[in-house]
């Protein structure tokens, strides 16, 4: 199992961050992502493997100063 925002979900072997976002119907281009508190760039989502116990958060990117 893994934690995705406020949900607890199964974590099958080989699950990538990109696949999780797709399965949860998240518009990947509109969110930033973090796994276990570490920011994951969009370019690394396809290769970021998730493990049981991981915590995945999505959040709106904020631009400006």
Automatic annotation (TrEMBL):
InterPro entries referenced in this protein's UniProt entry, alphabetically: Beta-grasp_dom_sf (IPR012675), Mopterin_synth/thiamin_S_b (IPR016155), Thi_S (IPR010035), ThiS/MoaD-like (IPR003749)
Pfam families: ThiS
Entry coiled-coil feature ranges: none
Top-rank lineage group of the source organism: Bacteria
NCBIfam families listed in its UniProt record: thiS
Name under which the protein is recorded: Thiamine biosynthesis protein ThiS
Native species: Hydrogenophaga taeniospiralis CCUG 15921
